From TrEMBL:
InterPro entries: Anti-sigma_ant, STAS_dom, STAS_dom_sf. It comes from Sphaerimonospora thailandensis. Transmembrane segments: none annotated. Belongs to the anti-sigma-factor antagonist family. SUPFAM superfamilies: SpoIIaa-like (SSF52091). One of its GO terms (molecular function) is anti-sigma factor antagonist activity. This is Anti-sigma factor antagonist. It comes from the Bacteria. Pfam families: STAS.
Length: 116
């Protein structure tokens, strides 16, 4: 079963991928190819909707950190949407909420002005 969905809102630089369930060793391995495909198709501006993600482990955190550095090298960025519960606690405890732009909803991402 897929644990992600992809949205391609118009008039925004961001591609949006929604994650569900857990972002752990198994899920991170399954996400590698879809993430690379999405970045190739849409460019280096990626927003991950974490509102339906209930758990993240060190592998998932490592994936986010590697991904943001990779996207910024390509003059893009990684944003997070709606992290909550255990996921938000881990991101705060590791001080990673300062590393990523964090939006409350997909609508907030879509409203973010395109890059010049």
């Amino acid at each position: 079963m897929e644990t992600w969905t992809v949205q391609t809102p118009d008039h925004t630089r961001w591609a949006v991928m929604g994650l569900r369930g857990e972002l752990d060793l198994h899920a991170a391995g399954e996400l590698r190819e879809p993430l690379l495909d999405l970045i190739t198709d849409r460019g280096p501006w990626l927003a991950l909707d974490l509102s339906e993600l209930h758990f993240i482990d060190t592998t998932g955190v490592g994936l986010l950190v590697r991904l943001v550095h990779n996207l910024r090298e390509k003059e893009g960025d990684l944003a997070l949407i709606g992290p909550r519960g255990q996921v938000l606690r881990i991101l705060r405890w590791t001080n990673l909420t300062r590393l990523f732009p964090v939006f409350d909803s997909v609508a907030d991402v879509v409203a973010d002005p395109p890059a010049d």
